[in-house]
Amino acid sequence: MGGECICVMGRYILRRLLWTLVVILIVTLVTFVIFYVLPSGDPAVRFAGKEPTQQVVAQVRRDLGLNHNVAVQYLLYLKRLVVGDKYGWPGLGFSYTTGGAIAPQLWQRAQITLQLVLGAAVIWMLIGIPVGVYAALKPRSAFDRSSLLVGLVFISTPVFWLGMLLLWLFWATLGWLPGTGYVTFTTDPVAWAGHMLMPWLTLSLAFAAIYARIIRGKMLDTLGEDYIRTARAKGLPERRVVTHHALRASLVPIVTLLAVDIATLIGGTVVVEDVFNLQGLGSWVLYGAQNQDLPITLAVTLVATIAVSLLSLMADVIYAYLDPRVRPR
Amino acid sequence: MSVVTRPPRRARASVIGLAICLGAAAAVLAACGGSSGSAASGSGSRGGTYRVEATDFGFSNNFDPTGEYTTNAWGIYRGLLIRTLVGYKMIAGVPGNQLVPDLATALPTPTGNNTVWTFTIKTGVRFAPPVNRVITSQDVAYAFQRIATPALAAQYGFYYSTIAGIDAFASGKSKTISGITTPNTRTIVFHLSQPTPDFLYRLSLPAAGPIPREVAKCFTAPGGYGRDLVSSGPYMIQGSPTVNVSACGAITPMSGFDPSSKLVLVRNPNYNPATDSTAMRTALPNGFTFTINTNQRDIFDRIQAGLTDDSLNAPPASIVAQVAGNASQRHLIHSGLSDSTKYISMNLAQAPFDDIHVRKAVNLIMDKAGLQQANGGPLFGELATHIVPNTMYNDASSITGYDPYATPGSSGSVSAAQAEMHQSKYDPKHDGLCDASACKDVFTIAVNTSQDTNEIPVVQSALGRIGITLNIRALPPSSAGATVSTVANNVPLALSQGFSKDYADPSTFFTPLFESSSIAPTGNLNESLVGLTPALAHQLGVKIPAGVTIPSVDAKIAACDAIPTGSDRQSCWIALDKYVMESVVPWAPYLTQHDIHLLGSDVTAWDYDQSSNTTAYSHVAVAANKQG
Amino acid sequence: MSVDVSILESAQPPALGTGRSPAALMWLRFRVNRAAYVSLIFLVVLTVAAIAAPLIAHLAGHGPNDLYRTSMLDSFGNPKGPTLHFWFGADASGRDVFVRVIYGARVSLIVGVVATGIAATIGVVFGLIAGFRGGGLDTLLSRTSDVVLALPVLLFAIGLSSACSNTAQGCVGGAVTPGLNLVIVIIVIFAWPAMFRIVRAATLSLRESTFVEAGRAVGMTGRSIMFREVLPNLISPVVVYAALMIPESILFEAYLSFLGLGVPGTTPSWGGMLEQASQYYTTAWWLMVFPGVFLLATILAFNLVADGVRDAFDPKATK
Amino acid sequence: MSDVLLEIENLHVTFASPHGPIRAVDGLSLRAERGATLGVVGESGSGKSVTFLAAMRLLDPATATVSGRIRLDGVDLLTLPSREMQTVRGPRIGMIFQDPLAALHPLLRVGDQISETLRAHGDISRRDASDRAVAALRRVGIPSPDERARQYPHELSGGMRQRVMIAMALVLEPELLIADEPTTALDTTVEAQILALIDDLRTRIGLGVVLISHSLATVSQVADTVAVMYAGRAIERGPCSDVFGQPQHPYTWGLLDSLPAVDGGHESLTPIPGAPPSLADLPPGCRFGPRCGYRMPACGERVPDLVERHAGHADACILPMDGREGLRRAPIAHPANSEPAP
Question: What residue ranges define each of the domains in chain A, with the CATH number in brackets?
């Protein structure tokens, strides 16, 4: 039975991976098309120096590979992606603006973004779960109502404004926390945490509110379930009923949501990275888009797409692990 | 020359004194008299590391000198890494723009009507490791072969187009450049196809510095050599000695340079001070670090804390104001006056700016003091009243104080502007206002960086007083540049434009900016389209309004450019400068920016490199005992 | 919790609202929600202030683009904070922040209402057609909405904004010009698919319901069934979702402005003011605090009103 | 039959609702005895489940008000501190529910759900607990219990799930098992098996059983004593054979008449007309009055008490005792205007 199960799972995963490939094709193509359909000037001219002669422009155009027609360029891009280029595999090319290879920068920036997003996810779960659970245990209580209202305030707060407000307060005015920028964990763990704290909070507050709302709803549903009554009838302590039975069942559907949110943020922390000057993927894609640096834009788009596909696949697998009812049989 | 996609920030003078005392920054006036300004005093001692941070290197060709076209790189090349045949003392002010021999033994006197230039190279000048050998005339000649190689995209190769045979080499018809000969290892002769009086200046640009063929031949794409640049100056990129240059395949990037994080320079063991002069390079620190710190605010916090010494970025006005207001910190502000002009560009082929009266009225109404304040006040720049910055004229006495559109307080004059507008065809009501529909919602490109954004309301408010309303698109610097420099976009008005010199001859302003031959469909620098002919207009998709003849200064530029360097040439340019301001009026110039540097407390000597418009790295010193 | 459900089900329906029209009933239920009611009042006041902005500017004595650079900027061009005459201080050009905040409400309110209106209309019409007609048209519209949701928003916004800023004409033959117009276009492009999906799904389920069958049986045409029978039944989900779209649109506009893609700085907008504030917030807090508080309050108010609207339409939705 | 295990006295349960208080149980008194089965019958909403949820203290105190006395071996459960109540639930009273699929945690293995009960009530190692869980499964007749213990509820059949529930309820060897509609969700053959299992366990380990059901047929199979509930009150109570053999209350008559006879020979199936009253808006007097075919004016005046008329057999009807048997055979056609026939 086990072997058969693994085989079914394997086929499912394979099918999803194939679909991921299709999505990657579509998204990179869309990015390419946007770049060429909505150009903000001739990129070759932009990168040909301050006073470009026509020869230099032509040369730059060749160097950047912009001399082919769009379809050929796209196919060449795919080919390099699969085969690799002079910078190794996968062939992500070089930045138009700096001439540096994309890949090493991509990994470096992905790390920062991952730290930002995962840290924020931990915080919003740490806030969202207890608040949501407590609100569900005391529905319509003062705590429940005020947590809903405060949550709505967080949801309504523009992230960039929250970031500036925190920076102004805790950095510029009170001097309690270090300001913008990033310090690697290995350099100085305390400084690292200090620099990440405000970005984490900024990114997580709205999510904490959303998750608290969702968890509250799920908990309310779950607490009405028969099996909770069973657990109580067995004489389990209330704490165990809430955590082990109700919360467990309520959190399972959250896993999918969490994975999708984290994945979306991997390419989508633009504003927080901008405000806090974190050199992650979000600020990079903004830079790439503003400076017509197509390889940067493509690389980040690619990573974001893969993250969304793989994480939602992972979420499905984890879901199947956590909820035996949806396991393929 | 450089289009300001990056705001120009360089200048004359040395210490805070000069810069601030010219302006009205009352709060800091007290500082002027007593400012000790460690700078040009240059009494530092040997040792230490001079630490520079920047949000971005912004290199245009990945630090490969053949194509690199940024002032930041030029300052580093000239002071520390590359010795050209002729160079500068790398000091502030007019003297800093005067040529002196560097790799060559003397400044040559041209023969053959400025077409033959012969140099002798100093003995005992050697390349840094891993090349280690004596620099010969072939190494200089090779630099020109690289410039002429199309695949390397030399970004200012046009300066060398008058060298005989360079086109034949570029097209592959010839294996060598016939106009460059090397009779022996110490002699190099340039034969030019036409008289080029300012050729010496062109040889002072870093692309003309010696390059060892054995290394550079391995790099066939633009920018590649930047990772393995072999120094001829007092410093070299860290890790140079360990690079294996025995075969092209073996070459690895030098460890001291990572375009995305750092550039570390250490002493070049092969540097012989006897071949150099301390007037040019004191070379006191043991090394230089240029580190990317993307957090601009953090950079200046670190400078104030003494954790770093200097920045490639200009400090924000708010920080300068804060430091200048603090008596114990005031001495940390240093500045130079850059050889640049900031201006509003008007398109001579677009209504209503096809009418010179409108253009003059724009100059008369412009609140230049307001624009100065938007840029951070007098500390950040002097008012500009004409095209070429005064520091580029050896003797600026005849143009100092020249302001054809002077108004009280430089804030614009409604009466003078309306009187001028009165004469315009766009004022049919003769009420001194631009009444015609062409004056309403004039399409205007602006730049959305913080300081340039601040200029928008000032311009808008000023032009509103003569009846011109604007339809403004504020774009990021590079998009704004690309949009304005595409002729077919027909942008009538462009704000926050800037131009800075490549070398200290006014031709580097007039030729690209106002010659009709420099009008190009894209990447056009002659944004005002001075000298546009109907034929060319038709070709570029520009519609010149009926009955309008666009003035040309081509003949005047050619005349001045033919005069050998010296006072006659200077006078010619000054006359042309005035002519352009009064009879062409393509711009409303308003600012010559100060290049402000906030320095760390460890800096004991500092000067401004007028030739590059950067810190004079060859003259700085730091307190050696405080640093490793 | 463990209540025998049947007990509650056997209870009588509430006596409330017998003999009242549905609209009056909803208004009654809405007013019960105090937060939503207060929010609505705030929004009404804000709207009046936005309409009367020139009057307020006149009373304050400063136009939105009047420069007070000698009195409100120091010699370095740094803005000065709140004074007796400049309640919210001055911005980096010496303009009155208070007057600009009031004017800024116009952009947020216009974007919120207009973009939502257009997006909701497109979503409803397309959703009705797709859900009701089905077939190839449905596939086309559904795939289009999928593709739109897969578009990289930022990239698209930056691309569209720069492409439309190159020439005086804008793009699409002058139909789309940068500024408010372009911002609304971008928001509409990304907002309609969500409404489309909701309406399409609801239409699909309604299509099978008995009264639509009945309509068919008495010989009503497809179109009249769609508009007379189906559409009225969609009002509740459409209104509730549209109410939620308004604060989202306002937030979206603020993000675009913050990234420099919004309305030009000469038109006061909260997002644009916050973009400028991002350069000065460590020294000039007033540039950040005042527009930000108004932005937050407006979005929050719309969210609370949306909550109230949902409760009014569907009292069972709240737990 | 004298060993009283659970004694409910004058129990009132009221739920707060937006539409006023709902009197779900209203003055109920009942007894369950050790080693015997008490059947509790009534339509849904009659208060039968609520009564025993109240006994288990499983009603939400925020919405339910409980008064009266519920004594287990003489100890009033309603006043017990909640910590001690936890040692009642499980070790002393086990409870099983209608829909075993919903009542079992879907994400936990059944073995773990049983051993968790053990571990919550005693210091027992994980291994011992799981061994005892398997033993408990075996005792309720589950084949290959080792394997089943590792399965999830959705992988088992309906009957098997209810066996798991029983095993879980009895693993701590309680004195009382409350079975709330244990067979409603099962088909008839499985129902018989489950009832037999419960009955078997009762006799084997001397368990007291409360069997709650809406189905007279179910109750009649196993109950020793039966209580019939209507609108929150017991309206008839007595030994099983008496209640089914000589039913005294018109409602019980109605229930029995609506039952298809097992032999299939009954000529007419007569449902009770009308619907139970709203608990938020009870009629005055006898709650069954409005639906009663034998209604008298006095019925609307006073709520009749449960009165014991024969040994152990009580009812709450004011009809005169002597004419009842005849009345049942000849109901009056129009109950609303009816006068009892002499």
Answer: 2-83 (no CATH), 109-324 (1.10.3720.10)
Contact by Cβ (8 Å): B256, B238: yes
What end-to-end distance do the CA atoms of chain C give, in Å?
13
C3 shares contact with chain D (CB less than 8 Å): yes
Cβ contact B282:B233 at 8 Å: no
Q: Could you tell me if residue C34 is inside a domain?
A: no
Q: Report the alpha-carbon angle A205-A207-A210, nearest 5.
A: 115
Digit-coded pLDDT (tens) for B125-175: 999 999 999 999 999 999 999 999 988 888 888 899 999 999 999 999 999
The chains in contact with chain A, meaning 3 or more Cβ pairs closer than 8 Å, are B, C, D
**Structural contact between residues B596 and B590, judged by C-beta atoms closer than 8 angstroms:** no
Q: Which residue has the higher pLDDT, B267 or D142?
A: B267
For chain C, the domain total comes to 1
Q: Which residues contact B172 (CB under 8 A, 6 or more apart)?
A: none
pLDDT of residue B26: 34
Q: pLDDT tens, D203-220?
A: 888 889 999 988 888 888
Interface test with A, best of C158, C250, C273 (most A CBs within 10 A): C158
Q: How many CB atoms lie within 10 A of CB B187?
A: 14
The sheet carrying D93-96 orders its strands as: D93-96, D176-180, D208-213, D37-41, D225-230, D233-239, D313-315, D307-310
Residue type, A59: Q
Q: Give the pLDDT confidence of B522-560 residue by residue, as tens digits.
A: 888 899 999 999 999 999 989 999 889 999 999 999 999
Domains along chain B?
341-594 (3.10.105.10)
Give the residue among A263, A287, A243 at the shortest CA–CA distance from A102.
Answer: A287
Residue C77 lies in a domain: yes
- Tell which wins on pLDDT, B261 or B291: B291
User: Which tokens go with A138?
Assistant: 């005391």
Alpha helices in chain C (DSSP H): 5-9, 22-32, 34-51, 53-60, 69-72, 97-110, 116-133, 135-150, 153-163, 180-207, 210-217, 222-224, 231-258, 270-280, 285-313
**Residues of chain B found within 8 Å of residue C276, distances taken between Cβ atoms:** 450, 453
Contacting residues of A for D103, CB less than 8 Å apart: 226-227, 229-230
Give the containing element (helix H, strand E) for B88.
strand B86-88
Q: Which of C166, C295, C319 lies at the smallest CB-CB distance from A161?
A: C295
Output the domain CATH number for residue C56.
Answer: 1.10.3720.10
Check residue D285 and give its pLDDT.
Answer: 80
Domain annotation covers residue C38: no
**Partner-chain contact D120 A240, CB within 8 Å:** yes
Which residues contact residue D338 at a Cβ distance below 8 angstroms, ignoring those fewer than 6 apart? D293, D294, D295, D332
In a domain, C21, yes or no: no
Among D194, D182, D224, D204, residue whose Cα is nearest residue D31: D224
Cross-chain residue pair A39–C163, CB shorter than 8 Å: yes
Give the span between the Cα atoms of B491 and B530, in whole angstroms.
14
Q: Which residue has the higher pLDDT, A35 or C18?
A: A35
Structure tokens belonging to residue C22:
């549905």
Average pLDDT over residues C178-186: 85
Q: Which domain holds residue C124?
A: 47-313
CB D116 within 8 A of CB A233: no
DSSP state of B545: P
CA dihedral B412, B413, B416, B419 (to 10 degrees): 100
Tell me how far apart the alpha carbons of residues D33 and D39 are, in angstroms, rounded to a whole number. 11
**Percent of chain A, pLDDT > 70?**
94
